[in-house]
Amino acid sequence: MSSTVGVRISVNGEVREHEVEPRLLLVHYLRDRLGLTGTHVGCDTTNCGACTVHLNGEAVKSCTVFAVQADGAEVTTIEGMADGAELHPLQEAFWKNHGLQCGYCTPGMIMAAADLLQRNPDPSESEVRHGLEGNLCRCTGYQNIVRAVMEAAHSPQRTTVGPPPPEKPEAREEVGKGVGA
Amino acid sequence: MSTVEAGPTGNGYVGQAIRRKEDPPLITGKGRYTDDIVLPGQLWAAIIRSPEAHARIVSIDKSAAEARDDVRIVLTGEDMTDLQAPLPMAWVPPGVEIKTPEHWPLARGKVCHVGDAVAVVVADDKYAAVDAAEDVIVEYDPLPAVVDVEEAMKDGSPLVHEQFGTNITHEWGLGSEDVEEALAAADVVVERRVVNHRTAGAAIEPRAVAADYRAGQLTLYTATQIPHLVRLQLAGCLGIAEEHFRVVAPDVGGGFGSKLNVYGEECLMAYLSRRLETPVRWTATRSEDMQAAVHGRDQVDYARMGMKRDGTIVALHAKLIADLGAYQQLLTPFIPSFGAFVMSGCYKIPSVRTDIVGVFTNKFPTDAIRGAGRPEATHLIEVMVDQAAAELGLDPVEVRRKNFIPKEDFPADVAPGVTYDSGDYHGSLDRLLGTLDYEGFRAEQARAREEGRYLGIGFSTYMEICGLAPSRAVGPSGVGIQAGFWESAVVRVHPSGGATVWTGTSPHGQGHDTGFAQIVADRIGSTPEQVEVIHGDTDRGPFGMGTYGSRSLAVGGESVARAALKVADKAKKIAAHLLEAAPDDIELRDGRYQVKGSPDKGLTLADISLAAYVPENIPDGMEPGLDETNFYDPENFVFPFGAHAAIVEVDAETGKVDLKRYVCVDDCGPAINPMLIDGQVHGGIVHGVAQAMYEQVVYDDTGQLVTGTFVDYALPTAAEMPTFETDRTETPSPVNSMGVKGVGEAGTIAASPTIVNAVTDALRPLGVNHIDMPVTPLRVWQAIEAAQGRGSGPRASEQGVPEGGAQ
Amino acid sequence: MIPPEFEYTAPESVDEALQALTQGGEDAKLLAGGHSLIPLMKMRLAAPSLLVDMRKLSDLRGIERANGGFRIGALTTHAQVSQASELGVAAHAAGKIADQQVRNRGTIGGSLAHGDSASDMPAVLLAAEGSVVARGPNGEREIAATEFFQDFFETALADDEMITEVRLPAMDGWKFAYEKFTRRAEDWAMVGVCAMVRGDFEDVRVAFTNMGGTPIRASAVEEALRGQGRGAIEQAAQAAAEGTDPPGDLNATADYKRHLARVLTRRALEKAAAA
């Protein structure tokens, strides 16, 4: 076995320290070391998004991050979204709008949607659909997921998750608008 | 056909869009899927799979893997000859022999498809297992592979299983004997070859199995749709008595038929755990699931539709050539036959016949994927109706309308030999057209064509057969499946008045916990919050059949309803006794058992159940308790139906299809929970649209799997899909007490011809009159090029592999 | 999907990182966002003996305007590039890479070093006539885009060199479009066309994604259009596929890719001209 490396990662607000193999994927660290099994694995190729968590406030696919790369970082998983018994507005909206069936893609979908709403608090339907292009769902046909995210965007109890992203994002530009920088 | 009167109702939860009881754990990361379950002392298995499509196994060198400190065992097929029976195939149609090779969890002697399991390594953790698997050296002697199903039928083709002397597994037919005469008498016979390509179930949760054998008891956790059948079948393979064998389907992350099977890995983990006397587990990677979870469809269909010039359909013959892959999984050879039962579609066709040929190829087996035979048949019929309409110069909507079985004909006997329970095909089509503005679209289409834009509209008016099934019709002496098809339920009211329901169905996203709770709450006078539904565990609740074929509500739900009615019946008797009234005078109203006309004289379910469990004052001779079981075997199938339409725009320069609008009207009988129906319809449509536009399992000419991951196997994302306009009509079924039909597969069954017909409609001005799925940009562009006299046309890439092979 | 074992180090400075890379030998690899490398490792198509993680090299993040151009730190993510609208077409194209999660992690330096002509930034760098700055044991050198991309997954970067910076000229007065043709939004381009037009076609640049082993400039199109007007686009675009030899794949034959190149070139130029 290759030598292990110490990591110190704040997961859902709690600092965790472990010795890990460098090759340990963040998703396996979360699931197998910390028992946070809400983050799922659905593919091998960074396509399905079921493993999406927030790393320093931004959505990432934790199957394509080594745990060692998260050393010193803050990670938020689906387990860190609710505030005690109070669901995050996205969780509430997914429930209310039947935005899930088997539930397997749901944690990743909610984490991706949270990133989307941080970047674009008032997205159009098309922006929601494109904002979730990194997450696959086989059950819902996406319709109620999109509806849930739209509703959460306009929820009075909107809160942000984790620390804010490093830079204030701007809405995505249409083709050609950014003429002659 | 018997009809059971609907029972007494409580608070009217049925029909309401109640939030799902299932969701709180799933949205907070507290779900419990198979891979989430940790077993003390668990070991991890990694499977060595064949990179060859067809080869003899010359040697397997396990020594390097066995020498690793963290490896506990390495096994090959030859090390497991103490298995009692090979993996099961459950279709034995009377009078027809089906060639079924022995299929073992690990290959013995030769491999027949890429991904065929050859050896297994068990190690202390999953990383070590994968490392060790790389140390197992397998030497293969490659054999010629056959991939194309029509090539496989020819003399001289490589043989997937030499012992049979042919790749043809069986031939089977259903329907009218006079179809040739009927076709000969038609004014016009429209003939087409329609390819229904291979797809994957692609549930987002890959398959996973964890086996725990200790002290003579085996527990198998598995991501399955059929825990009871897995136990029944594997008990035979492993030689373990059912009473010492428990199968649990915990939360299951989607199935779509891909988990409706008895898989080698399930047998293998159970075997290993018993042999090592410690838990052993395996979770598929996506690549493994693409290689070794059942695929669906994969037929080459030849249809001949006999028409009168006025658009009347007089005869239909379908020859289905079914690519079954390399082995027979649980129901592999049966699936195309399921299509034969719906080959008449919504239409009154005097003569309909289906002839099926099953064929081995060097690919993974096909089996039931969402719709299982009915999508293929419906695709064929609905494409043929459009083709015939175009050939006769008639409007495709009018041809449908003209041939529909009229509402007053139900129950309707059709040529394939089944009796449609109820239907109003004109009703759903009319409602669809009301939303659609068909004439307005045709005007817009004409204007667009003048601008060089190609819009198209496609329709699919489908019916399907579900609610599996009357055991006598489908079982050993009927169609020949070696099982019963009833469903079971227990409704147990606790002394405090809450209730637990056990169902033999095994949901994996459908929402049974909620829908069944609504059904039970109304029938026993409770609330959905007080009704807990348990499923997916052979040690809890009675034997059951599982969730597939859109059966769970019409069969499982009906069983639950009947058990609940038995509870209510007993509760009424107790209430009558306590209230000193006649049982017939007790009614369940607003959640109370009360004396008719005297609302002040009433009892709650909790009052009654306490009396039932503390039986100081119940009718003489009555057993204590409030706990009832039902086994329900339906007398007929149920036949949902509907009308779907799609509007597409085809970019004629690039071939890219844009799905602009999708409108549908579905009828699955009265709604238990309309929110759940909409969810099933949305997902079903995308599954069908995905086959029509995006997804295809592609093997190249040498049998290599080209679409081995989600990079190439293209599930659509939210960005590709429009918002669907869904609507419903409610035509009750006379078959069950609730009048309900199934809806899990309807969208998928309807959607693929809707899309293909729309694309064809758009392309007709360019000279393209017929195109096969998937309508990828490449294929559409090639079709246009060929029609315009440029290029070689879509046949060149029919296997999906372009010139020069795949990368 | 489990990566093979490797040794790991996360140096605090570029010099230390380069030293580790050199000492690690030819099987040592740099790790930036990891979104090209980790998938290959999980498939066991790559098995570096040592990964030198660049995550602590914070000097390599960020975008600054200097000397009439932009200096983009190698570790700047696609998401950050996509938000820097002053970068013009680079920002626009970066916003079309894969999906948000990938853009949050993948870096411009990592993407270019991977040398995959099917990814979007190589064609942008080529069209913009940008360059990369590479540091190695023998110091720093600037490599022009025209020199950098050499063949399928092959670049001019030596095994012991690190991209520290990507340089893009400021494209004041240029209008642009990036046409990316995919089946699904998250897919790699079947063909991508980066088109840039200065003023009224005083100058024109066109470069392709996924039309060969490297990003390719469509010089014939550029020449046919330079000094002409919008009216010449249709004719000029017909020359788009000249000299290309694109690989066929599952989704597109070589013929189809050449056809797409012509169509998308026209569309990209029309969009750029109309912008």
Short characterization:
The complex is a heterotrimer of chains A (181), B (807) and C (275). Chain A is of the alpha+beta class and 181 residues long. Chain A contains five helices and five strands; from the N terminus they run ββαβββαααα.
What does this structure look like?
The complex is a heterotrimer of chains A (181), B (807) and C (275). With 181 residues, chain A is α+β, with helices and mostly antiparallel strands. Chain A has 2 domains: 89 residues, Ubiquitin-like (UB roll) (Roll), CATH 3.10.20; 72 residues, [2Fe-2S]-binding domain (DNA polymerase, domain 1), CATH 1.10.150.120. Chain A has 5 helices and 5 strands; from the N terminus they run ββαβββαααα. Chain A has a 5-stranded mixed beta sheet, with helices on one face. The longest helix of chain A is centred in the middle third of the chain and has 14 residues. Chain A is globular and about 50 Å long. Chain B is α+β, with helices and mostly antiparallel strands and 807 residues long. Chain B is built from 20 helices and 28 strands. In chain B, the strands form 7 sheets. Chain B has a 7-stranded mixed beta sheet with strand order 3-5-1-12-9-10-11. Chain B has a 5-stranded mixed beta sheet with strand order 7-15-14-13-8. In chain B, helix 6 packs across helix 7. Chain C folds into 3 domains: 47 residues, Uridine Diphospho-n-acetylenolpyruvylglucosamine Reductase, domain 2 (2-Layer Sandwich), CATH 3.30.43; 109 residues, 2-Layer Sandwich (Uridine Diphospho-n-acetylenolpyruvylglucosamine Reductase, domain 3); 101 residues, CO dehydrogenase flavoprotein, C-terminal domain (Enolase-like, domain 1), CATH 3.30.390. In chain C, 32% of the residues lie in helices and 25% in strands. In chain C, the strands form 4 sheets. Chain C has a 5-stranded antiparallel beta sheet with strand order 4-5-10-6-7. Chain C has a 4-stranded antiparallel beta sheet with strand order 11-12-13-14, sandwiched between helices. In chain C, strands 1-3-2 form a 3-stranded parallel beta sheet, covered by helices on one side. Chain C is globular, with a radius of gyration of 19 Å. The mean pLDDT of chain C is 97. Classes of the chains: A alpha+beta (181), B alpha+beta (807), C alpha+beta (275). Chains in contact: A-B, A-C, B-C.
